[in-house]
Fold this sequence. Notes:
The protein is α/β, with parallel strands linked by helices. The chain has helices at 3-17, 36-48, 67-73, 86-89, 92-105, 125-135, 152-162, and strands at 57-61, 78-83, 115-119, 144-147, 168-172, 184-186, 197-202. Helices cover 34% and strands 16% of the residues. Strand 4, helix 7 and strand 5 form a beta-alpha-beta unit. The relative contact order is 0.13. The structure holds S-adenosylmethionine. Residues 30-34, 60, 62-64, 67-68, 82-85, 88, 121-123, 148, 150-151 line the site of S-adenosylmethionine.
Amino acid sequence: xxxxxxxxxxxxxxxxxxxxxxxxxxxxxxxxxxxxxxxxxxxxxxxxxxxxxxxxxxxxxxxxxxxxxxxxxxxxxxxxxxxxxxxxxxxxxxxxxxxxxxxxxxxxxxxxxxxxxxxxxxxxxxxxxxxxxxxxxxxxxxxxxxxxxxxxxxxxxxxxxxxxxxxxxxxxxxxxxxxxxxxxxxxxxxxxxxxxxxxxxxxxxxxxxxxxxxxxxx
Length: 218
Ligand SMILES: C[S@@+](CC[C@H](N)C(=O)[O-])C[C@H]1O[C@@H](n2cnc3c(N)ncnc32)[C@H](O)[C@@H]1O
């Protein structure tokens, strides 16, 4: 990674980390923000391991103000987010504008134009139709599915049913005991990355067991 990009990612992380939303408990708990410094260290490992790269497609299910999308956008081909709360998503543009101003002042890279955020329910098929129409990508195209522990069971089922084999489900906010999901295999040697990010790989679908007997030529 070139030095300017590295400084850019550091500044993006500290910008958002100084503007974290929500508490661990209480009414805003669901709006907790990923600590981008911590995530950045995890992303560096994914890059070193050759798992994430410039051709990767990334989806944040429950993207909040889009901060994870902005950080990841520098490292991947497409960075998509879905957020159910419109007022939360509305914070994306003003925050990004402020960030861009700061990046400009430091002569650092602006976020690439590969970020696409949608307002909708990430458990609902309709939003994926909208995404396919406007960005031309479907669930089967993503290499990474990210969530901050919100609705992780429901989201894991979507990954299990619709993602391509080898796709990685990233669950941020885990502690010592890691959840398990049907059809997704924990990458044990890497999880939890940074003590907080669990990684699961979508398994190849088991072939349906056919009826016993000899196949007949048609
Ligand atoms: C803990 S915040 C994480 C925000 C951001 N991904 C981050 O890590 O900083 C989770 C977000 O998921 C959103 N959310 C919850 N259920 C959702 C759903 N079914 N579809 C889309 N967004 C959802 C919430 O409104 C909230 O903004």
